[in-house]
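User: Here's a structure from my thesis project, written as structure tokens. My advisor, Dr. K., wants to see whether a designed sequence matches the one we expressed. Can you design one independently, without my sequence as a hint?
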């Protein structure tokens, strides 16, 4: 029997304080740890989070050199090869990859080693694809604490955690607590000793002052010395997680857990809409910018931006589990907003340089009065989507200002429906146009606005009344009394998508704290938003828009239901002006199926969960499918979004949590005192979009993964001019052969000029003989993908060199 005493200091760089205070506490804690190492020959310190080492390196280089020496001696254990300890549900799959990419490469560059133990003691849950991401980031082991036994039963403290692709990491759940505030460890050690019979004879016991830092104290170490050799206790050894896992006996009957590790603090999936939306927006802007910057480097010679990593590091920092979860103090979100703004500015700048470099090289013949528009698609499959842009300026009145006799043509001269919609500027010479663009995989197409007095006026794409819209696929009707969907009839399948009123905005009583501690579901409805007005605000050959304005208390909800020509998803643009407290807003959608199955997208994967109404985390989409009640076969509805992460499914009714309004950083049992003023979260205006995708068959048949990606990474229109150029008027740079294959990231390699291409299989089915074509390089990546497998490829700048598969750190 052995107890590995793990001296650590859980450091929250941001929580009830801002990052500047966390910065100082990291310095103080690391100084203390170094002093304890100097004073005690057998003391070992364990720490994670590359960002804190970078702080020390830049601010106290002498201390950093001390740490480097102690790492080399084996007295300072580097765990958690990530930039920091993030929320482990809400970041995208690629964000988890970047945590390891930048964290592990930093450790290797500065210390000559990488972490082998993943380390997230305080994160509030852990999604089911982490074993593969950890394994392919060089970490064979994992340490966590939440959820604790009362939140999720596990067969053992020590188990092999398996993801859907078959990857496994040896995992340990910390008993009781990761930090110890008291000086004496008697009680804590005794409790941990009780875990030995179910921990195969070895157990880790974590000690040291934490949360705000501090680390192991002299009193802690004296207490351990006094307990060593005491009857009834196992051998106590000052250790670290690396040594613990090295002593695990391979012959032990260690169980396998193939599941996610949930649930803890379910309110964190929705609280503080701002940080959630900034995170999603920044992730996608950086990914799109990287894709086109990589292409523009090879096609147009545009230098690849050197500051993308700095931008990613800001995004990753704000994925810390007390920032992205929404549980920090209010000023911390001013800092987060600014950091996200920095990252998105870098992304927008890099993207603009790339797109302008590409579009400038497209050959567009001169034509009097013609205005060319280039539409770019960032997805590695062909997309049909609305392109909308402002049109005209004072110096071009009569040329690029629409007079009503223009036509829009594609690259082959075919007429494309175009619609003038409400401009973002209220002026005489500035308009906004919208059209449905058909753009090839990760590529572009040129459209031309030309004068054509003979062009006939195109009919509207849908029939409409003030409360309904009908196109070739759907008939959507809004109840004018409530503002809810009264009917969404799928004409192709011959069924009603919903069994009752849908897009129903319900208000729930939510007295829980910021985390939603002790909650598993939110189901106490206390009211609904009801319609103030329902009207048709746009109607033409491209789209029709029904605007519903609803009210509850002092709050207003505006939903624009957008039915477009030739696309299946019905998008809903939402504006909420919220002024309620201790309440939650959900949108409910009762899918008309029997035997419902609820599927949620998780980072680089998906998972089926119970339909019991529990609050669950999700990414870009969720889906409820089952036996169609109004027809035959399987039917379902996918709910897509561009910035929400909290959902529940009760029976066949799926709900999206729009917002919560607790007090900032309220942690039970902290009391709410009368007479004090408190700041409440999510007050005021926020905007986001969701989309409804009714479908025959499953979410796989409907292409839910791709449709959700298109909502988050939209086509980009760019006004151009005519000139000679080497590029044709339509082109594709990257495409995938398999419908279930998602090309998630394309970037320049961290070392050298090679290209990195990362893909994953999204349907949970083998994809044999898959191909990713790179026609601008004359290269094709060929590979077999297992179910839910992530693969990373290095395409050498030398066209004669072979393409090789790497891990997520870009090492072979």
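Assistant: Designed independently from the structure alone:
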């Amino acid at each position: 029997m052995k107890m590995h005493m793990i001296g650590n200091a859980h450091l929250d760089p941001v929580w009830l304080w801002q990052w500047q205070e966390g910065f100082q506490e990291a310095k103080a804690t690391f100084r203390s740890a170094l002093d304890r190492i100097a004073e005690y020959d057998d003391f070992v310190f364990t720490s994670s989070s590359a960002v804190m080492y970078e702080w020390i390196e830049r601010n106290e280089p002498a201390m950093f050199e001390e740490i480097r020496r102690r790492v080399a001696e084996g007295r300072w254990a580097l765990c958690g090869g990530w930039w920091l300890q993030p929320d482990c549900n809400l970041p995208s799959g690629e964000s988890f990859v970047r945590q390891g990419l930048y964290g592990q490469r930093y450790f290797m560059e500065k210390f000559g080693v990488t972490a082998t133990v993943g380390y997230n003691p305080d994160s509030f849950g852990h999604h089911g694809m982490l074993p593969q991401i950890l394994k392919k980031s060089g970490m064979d082991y994992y340490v966590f604490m939440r959820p604790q036994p009362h939140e999720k039963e596990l067969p053992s403290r020590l188990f092999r955690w398996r993801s859907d692709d078959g990857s496994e990491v040896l995992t340990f759940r910390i008993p009781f607590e990761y930090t110890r505030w008291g000086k004496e460890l008697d009680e804590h050690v005794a409790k941990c000793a009780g875990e030995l019979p179910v921990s195969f004879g070895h157990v880790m016991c974590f000690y040291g002052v934490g949360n705000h830092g501090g680390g192991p104290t002299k009193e802690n170490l004296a207490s351990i010395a006094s307990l060593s050799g005491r009857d009834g206790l196992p051998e106590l050894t000052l250790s670290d997680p690396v040594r613990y896992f090295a002593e695990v006996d391979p012959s032990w009957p260690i169980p396998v857990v193939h599941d996610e590790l949930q649930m803890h603090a379910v309110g964190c999936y929705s609280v503080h809409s701002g940080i959630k939306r900034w995170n999603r927006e920044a992730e996608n802007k950086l990914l799109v910018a990287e894709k086109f910057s990589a292409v523009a480097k090879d096609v147009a010679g545009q230098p690849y931006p050197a500051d993308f990593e700095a931008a990613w590091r800001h995004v990753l920092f704000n994925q810390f589990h007390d920032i992205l979860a929404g549980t920090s103090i209010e000023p911390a979100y001013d800092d987060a907003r600014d950091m996200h703004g920095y990252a998105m500015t870098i992304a927008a700048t890099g993207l603009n340089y790339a797109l302008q470099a590409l579009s400038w090289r497209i050959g567009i013949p001169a034509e009097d009065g013609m205005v060319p528009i280039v539409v770019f698609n960032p997805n590695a499959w062909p997309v049909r989507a609305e392109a909308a842009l402002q049109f005209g300026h004072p110096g071009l009145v009569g040329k690029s200002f629409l007079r009503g006799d223009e036509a829009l043509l594609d690259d082959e001269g075919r007429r494309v429906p175009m619609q003038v919609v409400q401009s973002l500027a209220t002026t005489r010479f500035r308009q906004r146009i919208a059209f449905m663009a058909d753009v090839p995989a990760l590529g572009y197409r040129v459209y031309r606005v030309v004068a054509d007095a003979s062009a006939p006026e195109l009919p509207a794409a849908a029939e409409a009344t003030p409360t309904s819209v009908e196109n070739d696929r759907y008939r959507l009707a809004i109840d004018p009394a409530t503002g809810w969907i009264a009917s969404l009839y799928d004409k192709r399948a011959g069924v009603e998508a919903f069994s009752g009123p849908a897009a129903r905005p319900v208000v729930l009583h939510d007295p829980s704290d910021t985390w939603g501690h002790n909650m598993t579901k939110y189901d106490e409805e206390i009211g609904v938003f009801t319609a103030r007005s329902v009207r048709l605000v746009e109607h033409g050959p491209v789209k029709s828009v029904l605007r519903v304005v609803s009210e509850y208390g002092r709050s207003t909800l505006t939903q624009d239901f957008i039915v477009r020509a030739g696309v299946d998803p019905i998008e809903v643009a939402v504006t909420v002006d919220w002024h309620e407290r201790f309440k939650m807003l959900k949108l409910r959608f009762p899918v008309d199926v029997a035997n419902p199955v609820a599927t949620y997208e998780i980072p680089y994967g998906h998972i089926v969960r119970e339909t019991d109404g529990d609050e669950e985390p999700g990414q870009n989409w969720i889906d409820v499918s089952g036996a169609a009640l109004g027809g035959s076969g399987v039917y379902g509805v996918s709910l897509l979004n561009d910035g929400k992460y909290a959902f529940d499914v009760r029976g066949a009714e799926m709900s999206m949590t729009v917002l919560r309004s607790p007090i900032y950083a309220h942690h039970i049992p902290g009391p709410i005192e009368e007479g004090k003023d408190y700041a409440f979260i999510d007050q005021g205006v926020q905007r986001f979009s969701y989309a409804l995708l009714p479908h025959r068959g499953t979410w796989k048949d409907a292409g839910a993964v791709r449709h959700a990606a298109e909502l988050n990474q939209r086509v980009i229109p760019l006004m151009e001019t005519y000139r000679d150029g080497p590029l044709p008027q339509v082109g594709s740079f990257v495409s995938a052969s398999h419908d279930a294959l998602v090309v998630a990231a394309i970037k320049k390699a961290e070392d050298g000029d090679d290209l990195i291409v990362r893909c994953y299989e999204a349907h949970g089915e083998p994809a044999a003989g898959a191909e990713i074509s790179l026609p601008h390089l004359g290269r094709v990546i060929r590979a077999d993908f297992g179910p839910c497998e992530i693969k990373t490829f290095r395409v050498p700048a030398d066209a004669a060199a072979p393409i090789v598969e790497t891990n997520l750190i870009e090492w072979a």
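When you compare it with your expressed construct, this may help: The mean pLDDT is 95.
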